[in-house]
């Protein structure tokens, strides 16, 4: 079979190579998937470049999520069957014609969910839903997030609305405002506009902002903190700028603010199977009903992986870049 692998950390478009690999065999509790589509996530790119929270032993396969057809079952697997279309995350080597997944992580997909949606339905949407619940925010309260046109930001805004949570969505460019409005996302503000903070306060009025979610870092972290109400939370889940958070000690002290980090992989270690099942069930249900919209910017064949990973890190995308694997 063909698949992408790398033997050194570096720029993904330079170190990833399409190679002829042995078809993997599922061990007990595992399934083999004949992969259809897989998204290129930011954490996939960071892993290949050696900048993520862990470094896999080399050589390594790339890609962590995707939709595929169950091709073979390991001993003891229950809940899925050969020939069934499923989505799985937490894969090691999803960017290949065949990949191994834990049987318990495979989520069967109804026919009403297309392959492009299914391929990206778990990792980023589950991060968004877990992040929303992690904040403890309640109905009627205000939340502000930057990087709102990212995969997590878009899903978080869509999931917050039916919960009665008010979300202010910050983007860095004016053309992204319409992009979010097309998804039915409201309260979108471009930070390249003068006096954008005044636009924020005109939306909230006298109501305090309870939670700020920072996916950018640098000065953007301090901007969010300055807008928080007393006792508010600033939650960091990404560093798109590549810069350290720069926040005001005065804002932390006098607002009695709380600054916390969020990493889904760490939370999944202690999350109960019931909670994980409940949240994944909500994502599948909403996607099947068309209530959760996941955009795709482009689809590339495996042979054009270098172009695909470069496209995935370009600014101005309107959705995920996917690799077609079969």
Name some characteristics of this structure.
Quinone Oxidoreductase, Chain A, domain 1, 7-stranded mixed β-sheet, Rossmann fold, 16 strands, ER, single chain, NADPH:quinone reductase-like Zn-dependent oxidoreductase, 2 domains, 25% strand, globular, alpha/beta, 326 residues
Helix content: 25-40%
How far apart the termini lie comes to 11 Å
Strand content of the residues, in percent?
15-25%
Fill in the CATH topology of the largest domain.
Quinone Oxidoreductase, Chain A, domain 1
Describe this structure in words.
- This is NADPH:quinone reductase-like Zn-dependent oxidoreductase.
- InterPro entries: ADH-like_C, ADH-like_N, ER, GroES-like_sf, NAD(P)-bd_dom_sf.
- This protein has 326 residues and is α/β, with parallel strands linked by helices.
- It has 2 domains: 2-121 and 294-324, Medium-chain alcohol dehydrogenases, catalytic domain (Quinone Oxidoreductase, Chain A, domain 1), CATH 3.90.180; 124-266, 3-Layer(aba) Sandwich (Rossmann fold).
- Helix content is 30%, strand content 25%.
- The protein has helices at residues 12-15, 42-49, 115-118, 123-135, 151-160, 175-181, 196-204, 219-227, 249-254, 264-268, 273-288, 305-312, and strands spanning 2-6, 17-20, 30-39, 60-61, 65-73, 85-89, 98-102, 107-108, 142-145, 166-171, 188-190, 209-214, 233-236, 258-261, 296-301, 320-324.
- Strands 3, 5, 6, 7, 8, 15 and 16 form a 7-stranded mixed beta sheet that branches. A 6-stranded parallel beta sheet has the order 11-10-9-12-13-14, sandwiched between helices. Strands 2-1-4 form a 3-stranded antiparallel beta sheet.
- Strand 15, helix 12 and strand 16 form a beta-alpha-beta unit.
- Helix 4 (123-135) crosses helix 5 (151-160).
- The longest helix is centred in the C-terminal third of the chain and has 16 residues, at 273-288.
- It is globular.
- The model has no long low-confidence stretch (mean pLDDT 95).
């Amino acid at each position: 079979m063909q698949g992408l692998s790398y033997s050194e950390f570096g720029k993904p478009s330079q170190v990833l190579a399409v190679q002829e690999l042995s078809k993997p065999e599922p061990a007990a509790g595992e399934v083999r998937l004949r992969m259809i589509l897989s998204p290129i996530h930011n954490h996939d790119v960071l892993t290949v470049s050696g900048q993520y929270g862990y470094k896999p032993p080399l050589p390594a396969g790339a890609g962590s999520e995707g939709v595929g057809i169950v091709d073979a079952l390991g001993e003891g697997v229950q809940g899925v069957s050969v020939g069934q279309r499923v989505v799985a995350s937490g894969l090691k080597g999803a960017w290949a014609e065949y990949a191994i997944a834990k049987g318990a992580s495979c989520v069967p997909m109804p026919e009403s969910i297309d392959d492009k949606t299914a391929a990206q339905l778990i990792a980023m949407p589950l991060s968004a839903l877990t992040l929303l619940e992690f904040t403890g925010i309640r109905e009627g309260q205000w939340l502000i997030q930057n990087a709102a046109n990212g995969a997590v930001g878009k899903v978080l805004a869509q999931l917050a609305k039916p919960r009665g949570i008010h979300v202010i969505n910050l983007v860095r460019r004016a053309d992204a405002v319409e992009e979010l409005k097309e998804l039915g996302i409201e309260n979108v503000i471009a930070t390249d506009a003068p006096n954008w903070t005044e636009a924020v306060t005109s939306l909230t009025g006298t109501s305090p902002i309870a939670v700020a979610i920072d996916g950018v870092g640098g000065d953007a972290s301090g901007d969010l903190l300055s807008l928080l109400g007393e006792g508010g939370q600033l939650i960091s889940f990404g560093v798109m700028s590549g810069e350290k958070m720069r926040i005001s000690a005065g804002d932390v002290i006098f607002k009695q603010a709380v600054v916390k980090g969020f990493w889904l992989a760490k939370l999944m270690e202690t999350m109960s199977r019931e909670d994980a099942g409940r949240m994944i069930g909500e994502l599948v249900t909403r996607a099947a009903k068309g209530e959760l919209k996941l955009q795709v910017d482009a689809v590339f064949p495996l042979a054009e992986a270098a172009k695909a990973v470069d496209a995935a890190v370009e600014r101005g995308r309107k959705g995920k870049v996917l690799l077609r694997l079969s």
